[in-house]
Amino acid sequence: MKKVALLVAAALMAPSAFAHQAGDILVRGGAMTVAPTTDSEDTFDVDSNTQLGLTFSYMVTDNWGVELLAATPFSHGVSLKGSGEVANVKHLPPTLMAQYYFGNAQSKVRPYIGAGINYTFFFDEESRGDLQAIDANVEADDSWGLAAQAGVDMDVTDNLFVNGSIWYMDIDTDVSVNGNYVDTANIDPIGLMVGLGYRF
Ligand code: NI
Fold it and tell me: Residue 174: helix, strand or coil by DSSP?
């Protein structure tokens, strides 16, 4: 009997098997699609693109975390309304988020919301179509903006979980051709990420 009591006491005192809790590091990876939300008022149309998204969260408390988003470079075709593709741009959108996780350290399912800052830098801008024909030099300026997210982590094993999240990022870039400002591309994408996470 004494042995059983000790085992029960040990089980009660052991860290909870299923938990995001203070001090945990959460690494998530998966397919991330960036879908621009340009509308009919905009000069430019920007294609969607899917890349490998990676996020790193640190749980400051059982409910509050900070997260950094990283990804392999996104590549988007840029069209002028009614006159086809005129450029292709690549970008990286690192984003720093403060997150609130609902539930507690015993919850196997942790929905969360976050808000933060996005910095997007554009590179490898290339002219296409009519602009390529005249060998034009296209540039897209870097962008600072607010970002918001909602997501959920669902435990599969003690350390592995599945993740789904949706993002909004305010990304606006000034586009210039041969050094002359043309217009601002309001990319303002919705990001969708589905993948797996590991808790350290
Ligand atoms: Ni915007």
Answer: strand
Helix (H) or strand (E) holding 36: none
The answer to pTM > 0.70 is yes
Delimit the domains of the chain by residue range: 2-199
For residue 33, how far is its CA from the centre of ligand 1 (angstroms)? 18
Q: Give distance in angstroms: CA of 174 to centre of ligand 1.
A: 11
pLDDT digits (tens, 9 = 90+) for 83-103: 789 999 999 999 999 999 999
CATH class of 2-199: mainly beta
Q: What is the Å distance from ligand 1's center to 60 Cα?
A: 30
CA 170 to ligand 1 center in whole angstroms: 4
